[in-house]
Design a protein that fits this description.
By secondary structure, this protein is mainly α. It contains seven helices and no strands. The chain has helices at about 5-15, 25-35, 40-50, 55-65, 75-90, 95-110, 110-130. α1 runs parallel beside α3, α3 (about 40-50) crosses α5 and α6 packs antiparallel against α7. It is globular and about 40 Å long. The model has no long low-confidence stretch (mean pLDDT about 95).
Length: about 130
């Protein structure tokens, strides 16, 4: 299974986790029972995002000027958490790839305006780290 597909799986798990108090394992099991087998990268990123949700949300808040986290659509929060996690913690994913993939996921699951919003937040984050 390619990395894009596994990233998409991770996004769906992260999004699901926003609506449930179930354990990471339970969320993964439910996905596999209802859809398909998860890739190892999907599971790894999902667990990493879950373990670092507070830090990731603080980064989203820091770079989403004028937007409280509660106002951002949940799918966009899931996409941002995924991308920021990859930028900060996954060494073999270049930041530009994480941003591009996040924008593509936003176009597919959210909308064109949301893709621009996500691109702006991620671009600001990357520039702040240079």
């Amino acid at each position: 299974m390619n990395r894009y597909k596994q990233r998409e799986q991770a996004l769906l798990l992260i999004f699901e986790r926003l609506f449930t108090d179930d354990s990471n394992e339970a969320v993964c099991e439910a996905y596999e029972e209802n859809f398909e087998e998860l890739g190892e990268y999907s599971k790894s990123v999902f667990c990493g995002v879950s373990d670092n949700a507070e830090l990731l949300d603080s980064k989203i808040s820091e770079f989403s000027k004028g937007w409280r986290l509660q106002r951002i659509p949940k799918i966009n929060i899931a996409i941002l958490r995924l991308a920021i996690y990859e930028i900060m913690f996954v060494d073999d994913v270049p930041s530009s790839v994480a941003v591009n993939e996040a924008v593509e996921l936003a176009k597919r699951y959210s909308g064109e305006d949301d893709a621009s919003f996500i691109n702006g937040i991620l671009g600001s984050l990357i520039r702040s780290e240079e």
